[in-house]
Task: inverse folding
């Protein structure tokens, strides 16, 4: 088989796999609607405010409820010392009047 | 088959043979390129999916949460504040929440203890729920009149708990088992697990422990006239921000947090400008710049000689450029598709094991969640234009310079 045929065969295989993954994403999105609705219902029932992503510190567990001075919570000069603090912003500025 | 296609195929045949002559260099290049696409695509898929999921799930979060702040810190909320909030026009309902953290020294994990909202007899004493208006047609409001909290058949009664799946997994306990807690007065409280929250809800409930109001107060020694915070429901959703402003004016030591702020907090999570993300992106971009620089800064002596010979045997400048275009396209397309496919498998099938150590940080309890794959054309297009196009262009430019010079001088300038 010619090398160009081998290349196009490989590329076609990758495109097919990629298309299957896109179909999988689309189908999963529809199938997951019920699960997402359940999670949202749980949030509503329990009056939850945050995702359980980082449980290492109180202000990373409840990012939206964190104190305004979380980065300096232990000392005025203390820097962020939890790894998850490097992924997140503890609080997005309040726009209320 | 048209002659044009046949010509391109011959060029591709030749290009592959040429690439295979420098096997080690090109396989290394392809591997590194695939790795860059993989990291960028994984980051993009993970962050986009988690943001989208957060936006959907947290739509159910409270409209306004009111905290009391003392010296910049969250303090217990006096129930007496509720009357002040209730008197503000436009407020439909005010409820109170009791929640806090418990550090389990046995496994080194932090749990979130929460007293679920209910309308039992004790709540009036502790100010648990203060309904201003109740719609008899509202199924949710009617459900709130149930005497005890119930989750999937598990009844929450004094002396019992409903635990999140992460807690259950970590402590290896389930329904019927007992969980000891050290109360504020030093006594050990042995609470029975009456049920577990579903594993599919781990993204919001992994570390949750549902406990009754009475047990919560006993455990943390909180007096009945205090709660953790209050949640406010507003009649007109357009007035949420205005009502929050009025609460702030009326209760000067309060801090209202509106739902939009909660949603925006999670919309800005994993922002590319933030800490670790910028390190990942900088490393990927830097590696890519080195690639592009290597290509754009000129061809090796061997490649130059190859072009000289090709031109001497009759190839035209356009043929040489086409050959180099195919070289760039083959490497970048293969790397792009392989990287994106591997990234998808990594994030949505394998649970992002590459990111896991960084995401876990120092926490002992980490939720086991499967993300819903939210992929859109914009993400794929952005990734394509960030990786494939610059590389292909960077391959062509120096080739055009080399291909336009005289073949004789191209062959003479070799030092290989």
Result:
């Amino acid at each position: 088989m010619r090398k160009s045929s081998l290349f196009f065969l490989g590329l076609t295989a990758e495109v097919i796999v990629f298309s299957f993954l896109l179909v999988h994403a689309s189908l999963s999105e529809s199938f997951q609607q019920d699960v997402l609705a359940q999670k949202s219902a749980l949030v509503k029932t329990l009056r939850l405010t945050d995702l359980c992503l980082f449980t290492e510190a109180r202000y990373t567990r409840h990012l939206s409820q964190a104190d305004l001075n979380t980065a300096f919570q232990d000392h005025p000069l203390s820097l962020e010392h939890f790894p998850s603090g490097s992924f997140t912003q503890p609080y997005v500025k309040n726009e209320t009047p | 088959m048209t002659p044009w296609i046949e010509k391109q195929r011959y060029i591709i045949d030749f290009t592959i043979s040429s690439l295979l002559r420098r096997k080690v260099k090109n396989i290394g290049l392809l591997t590194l390129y695939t790795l860059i696409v993989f990291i960028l695509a994984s980051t993009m898929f993970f962050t986009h999916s988690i943001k989208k999921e957060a936006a959907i799930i947290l739509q159910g979060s409270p409209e306004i949460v009111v905290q009391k702040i003392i010296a910049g810190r969250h303090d217990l909320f006096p129930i007496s504040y509720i009357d002040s909030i209730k008197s503000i026009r436009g407020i439909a309902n005010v409820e109170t929440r009791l929640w806090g953290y418990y550090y389990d020294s046995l496994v080194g994990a932090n749990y979130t203890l929460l007293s679920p909202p209910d309308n039992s007899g004790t709540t009036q004493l502790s100010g648990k729920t203060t309904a201003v208006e109740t719609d008899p047609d509202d199924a949710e409001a009617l459900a709130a009149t149930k005497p005890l909290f119930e989750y999937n058949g598990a009844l929450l009664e004094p002396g019992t708990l409903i635990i999140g799946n992460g807690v259950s997994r970590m402590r290896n306990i389930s329904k019927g088992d007992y969980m000891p807690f050290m109360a504020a007065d030093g006594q050990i409280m042995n609470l029975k697990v009456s049920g577990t929250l579903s594993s599919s809800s781990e993204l919001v409930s992994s570390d949750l422990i549902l406990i009754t109001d009475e047990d919560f107060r006993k455990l943390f020694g909180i007096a009945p006239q205090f709660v953790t915070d209050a949640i406010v429901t507003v009649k007109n959703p357009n007035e949420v921000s205005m009502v929050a402003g009025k609460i702030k004016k009326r209760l000067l030591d309060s801090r209202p947090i509106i739902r939009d702020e909660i949603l925006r907090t999670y919309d800005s999570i994993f922002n590319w400008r933030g800490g670790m993300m910028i390190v990942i992106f900088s490393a990927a971009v830097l590696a890519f710049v080195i690639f592009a620089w290597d290509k754009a800064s000129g061809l090796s002596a061997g490649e130059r000689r190859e072009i000289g010979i090709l031109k001497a045997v009759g190839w035209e400048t356009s043929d040489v450029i086409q050959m180099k275009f195919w070289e760039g396209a083959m490497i970048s397309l293969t790397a792009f598709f392989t990287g994106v496919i591997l990234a998808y498998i990594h994030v949505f099938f394998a649970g992002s094991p590459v990111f896991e150590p960084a995401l876990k940080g120092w926490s002992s309890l980490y939720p086991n969640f499967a993300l819903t794959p939210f992929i859109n054309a914009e993400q794929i297009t952005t990734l394509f234009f960030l990786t494939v196009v610059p590389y292909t262009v960077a391959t062509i430019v120096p080739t055009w310079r080399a291909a336009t010079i005289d073949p004789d001088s191209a062959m003479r300038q070799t030092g290989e």
Observations:
- Residues 49-97 of chain A form one domain.
- Chain A has a mean pLDDT of 82.
- Chain A has two domains: 1-48, 49-97.
- The two ends of chain A are 71 Å apart (CA to CA).
